[in-house]
């Protein structure tokens, strides 16, 4: 049985990953400092509360377990916060990741899955964004992820540490069985915000700009179901075990949905009115952000199970209603 360390496994995507791995029969150890994660979201396996800044702890964990792979979901993710507090982001997302990688090198663990982001591309030069698109991040969050991607290339060449960087576009949805979902505080993602309005927990949602060059004037984003994201991670890890070279993949549906489409679909799914107000554009918001994920489909054999926006929202709504 393969043993996998999931760092940040108490968070939104990490907890879904732990569930998928356990269901597939893997031995899972979760490491999380619970700064943003939730202990009850880890549905099995061994749990260790700890921080990547604690190198002594990392050495103890790696000495006690013979890991076959490591998955890293323990980054801070808020773009605005990264601009206001860049030190927090460079310290956690970059320096702490170096601690993890150094522990892997010292304990001869060779397979690493990195949760990266579309923010490494910066302002899109064209869409859909393919693997040839220039990487030019425009905020500290994106730069920390881009820097780790560079570090991983060097660690591969120097130490033989193989890695796959998975660049998410917009992770969304919830566990189809209803056991897990988004629990960010504060919540910044569109779909849970819209559903909180539908549930009566918020009075309205704000649309930031309705004058973009899109069919309905609102921004278009590529939403990918969290379960489909996790499936891609497991496929990528298995590919590393088979001897594949280090690489990166974009993960998205390849089809974008506008902010207005999200609201309209949520109204249909929930049967609730969802009031919105129109605010000004946010600086740095491109009109379209859509992935070309053809390499992941071709090389990993990855096929999203839940590409439809309605299914993503249905699963997220089932989770939202559990909290009412």
Describe what you observe in this structure.
With 324 residues, the chain is of the alpha/beta class. It is 39% helix and 18% strand. It has helices spanning 12-23, 55-64, 79-84, 86-106, 140-159, 190-198, 226-241, 259-270, 294-300, 309-322, and strands at residues 3-7, 27-32, 46-49, 69-72, 111-117, 162-168, 170-172, 205-208, 220-221, 223-225, 247-251, 257-258, 276-279, 288-289. The strands form 4 sheets. Strands 3-2-1-4-5-6-11 form a 7-stranded parallel beta sheet, sandwiched between helices. The protein has a 3-stranded mixed beta sheet with strand order 12-9-14. Strands 7-10 form a two-stranded parallel sheet. Helix 1 (12-23) packs across helix 7 and helix 8 packs across helix 10. The chain is globular and about 55 Å long. The model has no long low-confidence stretch (mean pLDDT 96).
